[in-house]
Amino acid sequence: xxxxxxxxxxxxxxxxxxxxxxxxxxxYEAMPGDKINVQNVSSEDxxxxxxxxxxxxxxxxxxxxxxxxxxxxxxxxxKKAEDVLTKRKEIQ
Length: 92
Known about the structure:
Layout: H1 3-23, E1 27-29, E2 36-38, H2 43-57, H3 65-71, H4 78-91
Antiparallel strand pairs: 1-2
Helix pairs in contact: 1-2, 3-4
């Protein structure tokens, strides 16, 4: 495995997880009984998340099994992450 590719996709995974947290819409109450507030999501963050997700999907083989398992809950990357995990199990 190319160490530069591993570093690149590890950094992309980290950035993707940050963007995922930033773009997950959450409702919250400041105090019980107060009105419910909704977190604002930046369109720039959403656009970057889409780009990072597309690039990350090209290098899933460079991620660890735990990282791939983490991505199986993600709508956009779930199928590809499961495919990589399945191929790894077949090789072992």
